[in-house]
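Residues determine shape. Next comes a sample protein:
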Amino acid sequence: MFHILIFLPILLSNFCIAQHSQEVLDHFEKFRVHHKKHYRTPEEKKIRLGHFAKNHQRIKELNEEARKFGRSVTFGLNKFADKTKEERHGRFSKIHPKNHTDLPVYKPKHARHQKRISKRGIPENFDLRSVQIDGSPIVGPVKDQERCGCCWAFATTAITETAQALYSKNYRSLSDQEICDCADSGDTPGCVGGDPRNGLKFVSRNGQSSDGEYPYEEFRANTTGNCVADDRDTVIQAGTLNVYRFDEQYAEEDIMENLFYNHIPSAAYFRVGEKFFWYNSGVLQSEDCYQMTPIEWHSVAIIGYGTSDDGVPYWTVRNSWNSDWGEDGYVRVKRGVDWCLIESHPATAIIGE
């Protein structure tokens, strides 16, 4: 009887594994090796396999749906595939965006002709990753916010890094942690969420340090009171960054003009849906964000635009989930329709204007 009790957990674990198809088991093993997943116990591995199997099936359904509607977007297994919905959603902001009417409105260099972009001499496709200043890039590598919900700080820094690179003609990685710790004052920790417009305002008032001066620590901003921005060397000096919001009526063409003529990205704040998690390639068009509960938000940087081979206009968006997600860390979403409110709260910033 004693020996039976010893082997019972092993037998149950093997039974649960046997419930899954060989396809799922093979994909799980490849996933585990590729993402260097190490589970502490057989029980934890069994639980993670269960989550993986559910997500594996859901991704198959999403791809079948995309094919049914003739869309080129694809979804795939990624590093979140063994996580629950609750675990995945720790990366999102719980803070709803507000109107920042105190910010000046971006003034275009050319007369506005809504929905007639060619009138401003703007090309049909443009991407800041193709731009260099004296041989130096103006867009750095995609970063990883990990399990902290300070996407808004990473979106802020995506703007300020490019603004600084253009101004100094030398790209430097700037501190996301400084923004996450210091920019959204009050009782809300940075990892709970924030607004990139507040991040840009902070840099405008206080400047910003380098990543080396103020390095990123995943859970540092889980509590408030961790800001140590005083008495540090800054790369961007206080008072030199000018922040602008976009007129929502002309957001699409003004963002495009700002990208092409000023070479500056735009920080965007949008509602999140399930499909965003599993995005692999193509242009994301579905707005399942409006079915997601509770309502959660995510901040990103728009660094380019174009039109897909099947005629869908899109934004090229830099995420902060590392380069092993999506299209090397980027996602393309439908442009000109305010996809999941991505064109409702954008902002940008320029040094020295």
